[in-house]
Amino acid sequence: MLLCPGRSIFIPTVIHWLRNSTYPWTIPEDKFSDVLADISRAVYSNPGNFQYDDGLNLAYHIVSQRVHEWRGHFGSTAISILMTFFSSTNEFKTKEARKAYAKYQLKDSRFVYEDPDNEDSPGAFLSEFILRVFTVQLNATQGHQIIDSLHWELPTYSTALALTTTAAEHALILACNNLIVEDNLDQGKHKFMLMLNHATNKMTNTGTAFSSANWETDTIAYMQQIEELPFNRLKEIIQRSQRYMKHSPHKGLDELEDDDGSQNFVGYYMRACLPASNH
């Protein structure tokens, strides 16, 4: 059984299941096969054939590729938001200023909080940066189907929110080390500078990629923190992220618009949290 062409409800339902799973990067093959069969049974009234076969099962491979792309969208969206913020703000026209800003945001994980200087109510996971990146999840699950056997728990969105947070941190670390450059072949896009891999003696971006090898441990650590959030905070994150969702299926995941349709990537949080020397 192959997946139906076009934007079906199958892939959004898979991503919806992943949001609350315990598998941010690595999903056991047998577990994933069973979940895909359950979703296929609910969506198509047919369990299909999603048994992992060392990469030979086309249906399993297609879904796995879409999941890989979903993870990648978190990383690319975070970089797009950050670099657009830099390019639209006069204070950050130089690499030195961008590095200082990124370093400042990384200190004590300031980038996670809506108001990091408020000791009583800093607003964890409510920064505009986090909310904008989190729309990757909301956009990817539009049209999903609820399946009782897979969605019986209260939604914590721990996997999706942890990927959001690590993607934001990843973007800031790259900026802090001046490793993000404009892609001359794709206007408006960015790429990583290549670094020397001492093991192979070749230039590569393997060490700077948003990947399981580099970020799985950090993602799991964020998941543990997120699972302790009160349910009302999760509802607030989702509700406040919705205003940044794309309005058209033809827009890319990194084209996040405000309610008035303007591409205003520079929000209150990112302006308010500048280092004191930049005010």
From TrEMBL:
Residues 60-172 form the DUF6532 domain. Pfam families: DUF6532 (PF20149). InterPro entries: DUF6532. It comes from the Eukaryota. This is DUF6532 domain-containing protein. It comes from Suillus placidus.
